[in-house]
Amino acid sequence: MTLSSPRALPRQAVIREVGPRDGLQSIAAVLPTAEKLEWIREAYETGQREIEVGSFVPPRLMPQLADTAQVLEFAKTLPGLKASVLVPNLKGAERAIAAEADLMLVPLSASHAHSLANLRKSPDEVVAEIGRIRAARDASGSRTLLEVGISTAFGCTIQGRVEPAEVLRLVKAVLDAGADRVGLADTVGYADPATVRQLFELILPVAGDKLNCGHFHDTRGLGLANVYAALELGITRFDACLGGIGGCPHAPGASGNVATEDLAYMLASMGMATGQDFEKLLALRGKLARWLEGQTLHGTLWRAGLPRTMCDLKQGVPS
Fold it and tell me: 237-240 and 14-17 as β-strands: parallel, antiparallel, unpaired?
């Protein structure tokens, strides 16, 4: 057997903080708007330049994110910050466009069963909605980017196996419908490094540089390993949540997303610049723990700290 030579790792990577949306939507308690604004401001001060600040969904369905318009308005005052919002449909997209979000993220489940449970639409119905969103965006003259996150791409707690061929079909469909970007998401924590590599290798020839995001959950302790597998293929943009919060209502027992602070540490340890200031990042995590008192946070860097051999990496840049 001949082994292929490993690809050189990128020199820098982007971490999109998705805690204010993906993290908070999984927590019943509603974080006050003032604390959300403080979170975003301090995340910006740590060096984060892409944050998913909320979701334009009906407040009755998700009261935790009812203040998204206000949070987005504040985020847009921070120079150089790219503010993302999740939109489940055309109505949500129209709000994102009107609010001048930098990016709107549409979730599309590769699992038919999960799609019906989560959005009450089949995957192909969501693809059609993406086409309408693209048309509305273009008609408005908006510069808001349209990104589609292919959720349950590696498996589903309801359906079980999700065929890679179906993921590929849906990626082709959303690109044809007008998506600017596409990402693959391990929504329920079923992926491992081998399946991550196989699926990204399948999709990359079709999507090219439009496939530019990996969204991994640490449900079974493989989140960072899965990030590494995607890095080896040249993916340099990843979602993460401070404190590893978040999850999926259809994945009982899930521990949440890859922890922002752990991901930033791993990347910096391997010589990749992320722009993160570790002291500020861990201080913000401590503040989040107080805000979400009683909620379980995850991750390990907050407990162990940086090793002495990495004191020169406190700001997430290689020496």
Answer: parallel
Residue 2 pLDDT > 50: no
Selecting among 156, 213, 248, 311, the annotated active-site residue is 248
In this prediction, residue 310 has a pLDDT band, given cuts at 50, 70 and 90, of confident
Q: Where are the domains of the chain?
A: 14-305
Average pLDDT over residues 39-53: 98
Active site residue 241: no
Q: Report the distance separating Cα 250 and Cα 268, nearest Å.
A: 33
Strands 181-186 and 237-240: unpaired
Give 6's DSSP letter: P
Q: Are 263 and 20 in contact (CB under 8 A)?
A: no
User: Look-up: residue for tokens 């979602």?
Assistant: 239
Residue type, 246: G
CB of 134 closer than 8 Å to CB of 178: yes
Token representation of residue 137: 């965006």
DSSP three-state, residue 244: helix
User: What kind of architecture, by CATH, is found in domain 14-305?
Assistant: Alpha-Beta Barrel (3.20)
**Could you give the CA distance from residue 14 to residue 84 in angstroms, rounded to a whole number?**
14
The pLDDT value recorded for residue 23 is 93
Contact (CB, 8 A) for 34 and 257: no
